[in-house]
Design brief:
Helix content is about 10%, strand content about 45%. It has one domain. The protein has two helices and nine strands; from the N terminus they run H-E-E-E-E-H-E-E-E-E-E. The N terminus is likely disordered. The N and C termini lie far apart (about 55 Å).
């Protein structure tokens, strides 16, 4: 027996805040070769590189970097749409606080939009469409340490 699909009503669809960047802004800001390195508080460096970008989206190639700067462990390739990247920052309107804040990072002093939600904080550099430049919880932060076009 097939059950009828339930239609979403305005009451059943959670409201989200506007995202820090549109899908088109992310596409422009994340060309092939953009490589982002983030470091957690334990010193582990994660790398994400955009490749094979087109109108639909890019392939994100990700790995953990060893102490010698070479990949340590598996390299993961994930194909996503630009809209999916945008939706990673679609935070619920209820319970999310948004503010503007200037922070110091290895990339310099950055003007950021800050989102506080469910005990986590995300900082998005207003001049750097794409991933947050810092995110996490107290004691478990991850910070962007480099952003290059390779």
């Amino acid at each position: 027996m097939t059950l009828p699909r339930r239609r979403a009503t305005p009451e059943s669809v959670p409201m989200t805040l506007p995202t820090p960047f549109t899908a088109d802004e992310i596409r422009t800001g994340c060309p092939d070769g953009r490589t982002v390195r983030t470091r957690d508080e334990a010193g582990t460096v994660s790398v994400s590189r955009f490749t094979d970008g087109d109108d639909g989206g890019p392939t994100l190639v990700s790995w953990t970097e060893g102490p010698d700067g070479n990949p340590a462990g598996d390299t993961v390739r994930t194909r996503l749409t630009w809209r999916q990247f945008q939706q990673h920052a679609a935070f619920p309107a209820d319970g999310t606080t948004v503010s503007q804040e200037t922070i110091r990072t290895p990339l310099g002093e950055l003007e950021c939009t800050r989102y506080d939600v469910d005990g986590m904080t995300f900082w998005f550099d207003i001049h750097r469409p794409g991933m947050p430049v810092r995110h996490g919880t107290p004691g478990s932060m991850r910070t962007m340490v480099s952003d290059s076009r390779e």
